[in-house]
Amino acid sequence: MRKDSRLSRVLHILAHLATSDEPVTSTQIAKFQSTNPVVVRRTMGLLREHGYVESTKGRNGGWAISRPLSDITLLDIHRAFGESSLFTIGLTDEHAHCPIEKSINESLAAVMNETEALLLKRFGEITLDALYKQFPKH
After folding, report:
1. What are phi and psi of 62, to 5 degrees?
2. How many alpha carbons lie under 13 Å from residue 96 in its C-beta half-sphere?
3. Residue 35 and residue 27: Cα distance in Å, rounded?
4. Which neighbouring-strand residues pair with 55?
5. What is the pTM of this model?
6. pLDDT tens digits for 7-26?
7. Is CATH 1.10.220.30 the classification given to domain 6-132?
8. For every one of its 138 residues, what pLDDT tens digit does the chain have, with 9 covering 90 and above?
């Protein structure tokens, strides 16, 4: 199963932006993320739509944080990507008429929904400034 690492990758990017005194270009971000600048611009565009970053064009242009880190939570960032499922565990539906499969799926779904709700609640309690205070100064 493929992991969705967007949250982790974006938090890494935002940490760099938060510690930079000047805008950071998509090319610079792409280098430390080992990806393409187009992917960076697409990702950052989602964050810009939600007001978490801003971009400037030109010679000294790039991306910068546009709100105080204390106003942005992990939940905010998660939601900026469309609230995809936090878990890659899936339920089987190959035998949808089987009462055993149906019962197992209902039990697993209930546990996963409860766990996801707890995790999202915790995400809403963690601001980026609190998260980034844990980083060593560089």
Report:
1. 150, -160
2. 1
3. 9
4. 63
5. 0.79
6. 889 999 998 899 899 999 99
7. no
8. 456 678 889 999 998 899 899 999 999 999 989 999 999 999 999 999 999 999 999 888 899 999 999 999 999 999 998 866 676 666 777 777 888 888 888 888 888 889 989 999 999 999 999 988 877 665
Q: Which amino acid is at 69?
A: L
Q: Which whole-number Å values give the CA distances from 56 to 7, 12, 25, 65, 137, in the listed order?
A: 23, 20, 9, 11, 27
Block residue for tokens 């936090």: 86
Task: Report d(CA 127, CA 69) in Å as an integer.
Answer: 7
Amino acid at 59: R
Phi, psi of 73 (to 5 degrees): -110, 165
Tell me how many helices (H) and strands (E) the chain has: 6, 2
